[in-house]
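Sat 14:20. Reprocessing the chain from the morning session after the first attempt stalled halfway. Input below, unchanged.
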Amino acid sequence: MLQSQGFAKWLLARREAEGLTQQELAVRAGCKKAYISKLENTSRPVGQKPPAPTLEFLVKLARAFGAPVSEPLIALGYLKEDSQIHIEPHIMRMIHYYRELPEREQRLAEEIIKTLWRETSKFASAEIPKKKRA
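Finished this time. Tokens:
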């Protein structure tokens, strides 16, 4: 199963378990009903990519469900099942400030974050050289 299909199925099941319509969830998450519908849709024409929700939206979605942020991240395959994540207040403030930026500056901030993520991922996955014995 594609990760996007897993997310779509998770979103649909979670929404239905909460007894929410797509419109009600959209209001809670601060988006349009059409976006929720696209995210829940698992059938797409060949070659069409599913929408990629932003981290900001995933935070809003988790809040809309009263769930930890790790839940949608696990459904997307970004975290393992046993992962626990807690977003510190200073990170939430950064997300708030990000939303206030003009679109051009938001794109620049996203590129900076992506670059930092790639670089730290390379560093974290690099092998630590073993000390030679004397």
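The mean pLDDT is 80.
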